[in-house]
Amino acid sequence: MENFVKPQFFSFLREEAAAAVQRYSPHHKFMAHSGFGNQFAESTSSSADDVQDPEVSDSESSVVGSVHEERSSGLMRIDEGDKIYGIISNKFLSGLGCFGLSTEITAIHKETCSSFIKQAKLQSFLIFSKAVEKKCGGNANVKYAWFGASNDEINNIFSHGFSHSSNNGAYSQAICLSPDDNSHDCLQAAVPDKNGVRHLLLCRVILGKTEVVHPGSGQCHPSSEEYDTGVDNLSSPRKYIVWSTHMNSYVFPEFMVSFRVSSHAKESQRNTVPVQNPKSPWITFPALISALSKFLPPQTVKLITKYHNDHKVCA
Predict the structure, then answer these.
(1) What is the structure's pLDDT at 302?
(2) In the prediction, which pLDDT does 279 show?
(3) Which residues touch 40 (CB under 8 Å, ≥6 apart)?
(4) Do 12 and 126 meet the contact criterion of CB atoms below 8 Å apart?
(5) Separation CA 123–CA 24 (nearest Å)
(6) Average pLDDT for consecutive 10-residue bins of the chain (315 residues)?
C-alpha cells in the first residue's frame, strides 16, 4: 500500500490550488520572471480590480477582426490608456524589428479566468509551476513567450487548450513558442483572418531546466528526468520547446495581441529569404559547414567536417 498516494496529498493540492486562485491576477508575480521585468507589477494597482469581473461593456463585446465574444470567452479588452497595454505593445512591436514600423495593433485582450473550467486550468498551471520550482531548487524558470496561430486555432486554444503541435514538422511532438523579445518569429504562423487581422498569444511558460533539441530529431519527451523542456540554443534561445504531453500544463495563454501588417511589410517579409541567398553559384566548404551547423545536429556536422578533411588529405 505504500506505493499509493495518500488521501491527504489530494487535500493538500486542493488547498494549494484554492490559495493560488485567490492570489492570482494577470499581473501575478510571475511577470517579474520574464523579460518584462517589474513593469507589470508596477501597473497592478491601476487595473487589477477588474480582473475577475466577467462583465464588460457593450462597446467591448467582440475582438476586432475575430469571432470571439468576450462575455463567453472570458477575454477582456485592455484600454489603450492602461499601462499594461503600453508595456505589451512596446514589447511586441520592438520584437518585430523593422516590421514594427509597418504594424498596427488593433486590440490587446487579457484572460480573466471567469469560468470554473478556466480557473481549474489556472490552478493546474500554478500547481505544476510550484512542483517544477521544488524540483529545480527554487526556480521554475517561468518566462513569457509568443505563440502565433490562425484565428480558428486561437479560438480553440482559449476554449479547449492546445490540441496539437503547430511547427511545420520541425518539432512534431511539441509546440514552439518565441521569447518575449522575439515576436517576429511568430509572424508566419499568425495567419490573417478575413479582415486581415492577425493574432499572437502572450503566454506564461514553465521552462524548468532546459536542454537543446534539434529540429527533425524526432525527440518526443525530455531526454532524462533532469530536464523539463527544450530550446534551440541554451545561451540565446529563439524557440522554447514544450512537449505535447505538457503543453496544457506548462503553458498558460494570458494575453492576445491583435494586429495588422501593411502590404509593404508583407512584401518585405516574402522577400527576406531570397535576399539572403548567395549571389555566386558556389560556396566554400567552411562557409557551407558553418551554415549547416545552424540546423543540423552536432554529430552530423562533425561527420561532414571529417569527410571534408579526409577528402583534402586524399587530394
Answers:
(1) 79
(2) 52
(3) 27, 31, 32, 84, 87
(4) no
(5) 9
(6) 49 54 47 50 40 32 37 81 95 92 95 91 95 96 96 91 68 90 93 94 97 87 94 94 94 96 60 48 73 76 76 61
Q: What residues form DSSP beta bridges with 111?
A: 75
Which is nearest to 76 in space by CA: 122, 35, 107? 107
In the three-class reduction of DSSP (H, G, I as helix; E, B as strand; rest coil), residue 216 is classed as: coil
Q: Are 178 and 185 in contact (CB under 8 A)?
A: yes
pLDDT of residue 14: 54
CA–CA distance from 90 to each of 30, 101, 214 (Å)?
A: 19, 11, 31
3-state SS of 156-196?
Answer: HHHHHCCCCCCCCCCCCCEEEEEECCCHHHHCCCCCCCCCC
* One-letter amino acid of 284: T
300 Cβ neighbours under 8 A, 6+ residues apart: 292
Q: Give CA separation, 15 vs 6, 30, 127, 128, 135, in Å.
A: 15, 20, 11, 14, 20
CB atoms within 10 A of CB 275: 8
Q: Where are the domains of the chain?
A: 7-268, 278-314
The answer to whether 250 touches 94, Cβ cutoff 8 Å, is no
- What is the C-alpha to C-alpha distance for residues 176 and 171, in angstroms, rounded to an integer? 8
DSSP state of 55: -
May I ask the CATH class of domain 7-268?
A: alpha beta
pLDDT of residue 312: 64
pLDDT recorded at residue 274? 41
Helix (H) or strand (E) holding 200: strand 198-206
